[in-house]
Every structure is written in C-alpha cells, then in structure tokens.
C-alpha cells in the first residue's frame, strides 16, 4: 500500500505522538508549530521536553513553523486546541492540497457558536474532506509504542476505511465509524466529566464514589448523545465509554489533574499549572447545549459552576448527594 503524505498541525504532546505514528513507513512528516522558539527546540532536542521528556521524535518527523508545508500533504492531522481550531484552519486553507483530508484530533466544542470541530472545519474549508480521530489514548503511551486503539469517524465509510489503512500501525489500531457526531460528543463530554472525577479523587471520596461518578457521568453523556442523534454503539465504544474510563482514572489526564487540584483546594489557575485542559473551556457550552435540548446533566453542570466560581466543591458534592431518589436511567 502506498503511504500518502501526512502533515501535523500542532506540536504539543498529542501532536508529537501522532507525528511519530504517521512517521511509520513514511520518509518525512511535517510537524507544524506556531511558536518559532518551540520549533527550534524540537529541531534541536528532538523531543518535547515540557510534555514528553525523554521520548524522542521519530527521525522522519520534521518540525517547522512554515504552514505552507501542508501543500504536499494528502492527510492533515489537526491537533490544535479546540478554541483555536477556527483560526488555524483559516491560516491553513490557502495551503491545503486539492482533495486533502483534514482529520480533527481535538476534543471540544467551540464556545459561543456551539460548533463541533468538524463543523468548524467544514465551514472554514468547505473544499476539504473532514474526519475525526478520538478515543482512549495518552500521548506518552503512544510515543512509547504501547498498544492503543482509537476511533476514526467520517461520514463517508470509504474515506474512513482509507484513513484507517493509512494511519494504523501494529501498535496504533484504528476502528472506523460514520457516526461523526457521536464520536465528537464522547470526546467533548468526557473531558468535563473527568474534571469531576479528579475532584472526587482530590477530596479523597474513595474508589466506590469514583466508580459511581463515572457510571452516572456516562449516563449523562449517553442522554446528550441520544438527544443529538448519536448511535448507542458509538457511545459505548472507544470514543465514548472507553475514553471516559481512561480520562477519569489517571492523573496523566490534564482534565482529571485539574479536577484533582480543585478538589484539594487549589484555585483554577493553580490547578491548571499552565497546562491546557479542554474540559474547562467545554463545560459551559456543553451545559448550554444540554439545556437547549432539555437534557439533565447535573455532574457536568456542577463542574461548570465550580469553574465559574459560583459553587464550591463541597457544596457541589452535597447537592449531588441530596438529589431526589429516582430510578436508574
């Protein structure tokens, strides 16, 4: 099989990990970063020392600050933060090759417009094919070559299959689906719910409480997904339940780590430690969308209120425990 040219937009931890995956069987993979100093450090050190110390870039990965590197790419992996995706796509559009596929690898919903990332890309670059990659995966695990399985979603099944064939490796397995919205809902909602899981950990509520929170959080994710037309098998799969379980159980998750910090009494600024946690940006828009659809999401709503400074962690826990008794659903 001929390997198509791949370029990666975004050189954070996940961008580096996906660039290393894409480098398997390819002579060169462009890894674009906006910050010239970051590009220089990656080129010199051959590692992202801040986020992935000791894990080297594949020799085929070429860091660059020149976005025109996209002109040769048949597949573009967009690994920039969700709230800056629109700006990046606008910058990238003049340089995209004809017939290129834009694979969204960010998990979030645009604030204000309530747009999922696939909608942002389709609106800014209508001439490209759009796909979404999501699922239970930590960048460090992928860089170490540990077995990982994720989901690749595209509305055209043939495109999804083609991308799975192009991007899969023996250690990085892709499953395909045409349920783009279901995959995006799982990726966005699990980040918010992981903050709640981190708070429970930070408050030392115990493993039983954490298990209950994950289960009830998944019920919230499922209710929202059904209301938005997602398929049950997608929500139960890698990009839904799988990603939720991973993100809610490890401090490797920035969202879990943020919640853990809040649970120990840190301020939002102290808890983030300068690291991006997408769930903090997604919580408000997720609740707004749920309210528009009449979907009850008390755990996610509590996270939003805590991040906004309207509710303390202890008050949120008490409010959730005092909710009326009801049948499980």
Assigned CATH class of the largest domain: Alpha Beta
Query: Which residue ranges are poorly predicted, with pLDDT under 50 across at least 5 consecutive positions?
Result: none
Largest sheet: 8 strands, mixed
Number of strands: 10
Tally of individual helices: 15
CATH topology group of the largest domain: Rossmann fold
| SSE string, helices as H and strands as E | EHEHEEHEEEHEHEHEHHHHHHHHH
Classify the helix fraction into a percent range.
40-55%
| Reported CATH architecture of the largest domain | 3-Layer(aba) Sandwich
First and last CA, distance: 47 Å
Give the mean pLDDT. Answer: 95
Radius of gyration: 19 Å
Strand line-up in the sheet with most strands: 3-2-1-4-5-8-9-10
Content-based structural category: alpha/beta
Q: CATH H-level name of the largest domain... which superfamily? A: NAD(P)-binding Rossmann-like Domain
3D shape? globular
Strand content: 5-15%
Number of domains: 2
Descriptive overview:
The chain has 329 residues and is an alpha/beta fold. It folds into two domains: 6-178, 3-Layer(aba) Sandwich (Rossmann fold), CATH 3.40.50.720; 182-321, N-(1-d-carboxylethyl)-l-norvaline Dehydrogenase, domain 2 (Orthogonal Bundle). Helices cover 49% and strands 13% of the residues. It has helices at residues 13-22, 36-45, 85-92, 117-124, 139-143, 157-167, 180-202, 207-227, 232-235, 238-247, 254-263, 268-272, 278-293, 298-307, 313-321, and strands at 6-9, 29-32, 61-64, 75-78, 101-104, 109-110, 115-116, 129-134, 148-153, 172-177. The model has no long low-confidence stretch (mean pLDDT 95).
